[in-house]
Write a structure and sequence with these properties.
By secondary structure, the chain is mainly α. The chain has a domain of about 100 residues. About 80% of the residues lie in helices and about 0% in strands. The protein contains 7 helices and no strands. It starts with 8 loop residues before the first helix and ends with a helix.
């Protein structure tokens, strides 16, 4: 049986540099086309934000020392920033704060809960990421208190799921979480 040849580190680095150059070229061409054809609509900025988001994902995914929980955390933050940027470019209707971010928070928390249930023995590797996602999940409280959103339902659901997830995580992995916090923060 024949297996595909693995790219050497040197070749893969060259490939990444070429693709990064192509992405930069595409971003410049899109910006020029946007300025020439429809300067009043900033659609190239949205496309370029998508390119930047894709490269953040690729760069983070290439790092072999990352784990699934780290991917969940980075994706949740990056997608939230991207949707807020898109909302802002279209006149900031608030859908990113009322709908997008709460849904992203819910998905991140449910994903972390599944990871906890499926691999609670290995949960120690996810503890810090879980803590960051729980803290990130409190952002809708700020949106509610500051009056940035009108519809609170999804935000309350996201906060509730985060609290339930945090409690279940503590119940399922209390000893492991305590050891991880002590080790990470040198307590």
């Amino acid at each position: 049986m024949l297996y595909p040849k693995k790219l050497s580190s040197k070749k893969s680095n060259l490939l990444i540099k070429i693709l990064l150059g192509v992405s930069l070229l595409v971003a410049i061409i899109l910006t020029i086309i946007n300025k020439v054809t429809t300067p009043e609509i900033h659609w190239a900025a949205l496309a370029n934000a998508g390119i930047i988001y894709a490269w953040i994902t690729v760069r983070y995914s290439i790092n072999k020392r990352t784990n699934i929980a780290g991917h969940v955390m980075i994706q949740a933050i990056a997608i939230s920033l991207l949707t807020t940027y898109i909302d802002y470019n279209f006149g900031f209707k608030g859908w990113s704060l009322e709908i997008s971010i709460p849904i992203i928070i819910m998905i991140a928390n449910v994903t972390m809960l599944v990871l906890t249930i499926v691999s609670h023995k290995k949960y120690i590797r996810y503890a810090i990421y879980q803590l960051v996602i729980c803290i990130y999940s409190l952002i809708p409280i700020y949106f509610i208190q500051s009056g940035l959103i009108d519809n609170y339902i999804l935000s309350y659901v996201a906060i509730g799921i985060s609290i339930v997830n945090f409690i279940l995580t503590i119940i399922l992995s209390a000893k492991d979480v305590k050891e991880a916090v002590i080790r990470k923060f040198h307590m």
